[in-house]
Please model this.
Amino acid sequence: MPLERQYSAFLPINQTIDYVMVLGGGHMVDDQIPPTSELSRASLMRLSEGIRILRMYPGAKLILSGYDGGTGVSHARTMAKVALALGVSKPDIILLETAKDTWEEARQAAAFVQNKQLVLVTSASHMKRAMHEFEAAGLTPYPAPTNFLAQKEDRAGLAKVHTIISVLRAD
Model:
């Protein structure tokens, strides 16, 4: 939780945003399932957060990144297929299809974004490292963490689990 909570959720700011970049996070290729199911949970969370933010800033472009990982279809292209299915306009999508890691994503973004305003979307547990890489590449993105996994302890829920276990052991 301390790692994930270093950056707050992205809220609208009184600033023009030119780009919303969603970092890659895994996919599979299977034309027999819905496009949303081709993305890993982390990727779907990242993409949905990127689209949420994109809708706050008319005129902004959505940058999607990630290579094919041996699937024959880039992760960026798979995310684009889902973004299109969720109503994002094709001209608003930019693909960076060769980046294999965050270091490469940051360098490719820096060459493309230059001095424009960028929101960076990735999993909360990955945000600190991603911000470091993007800052090292000369960018100062606004962080937009998502896919928070750590939660505050739920004592009531934990007590219920213990009760259920006790009942099952008694049987």
Summary: The mean pLDDT is 86.
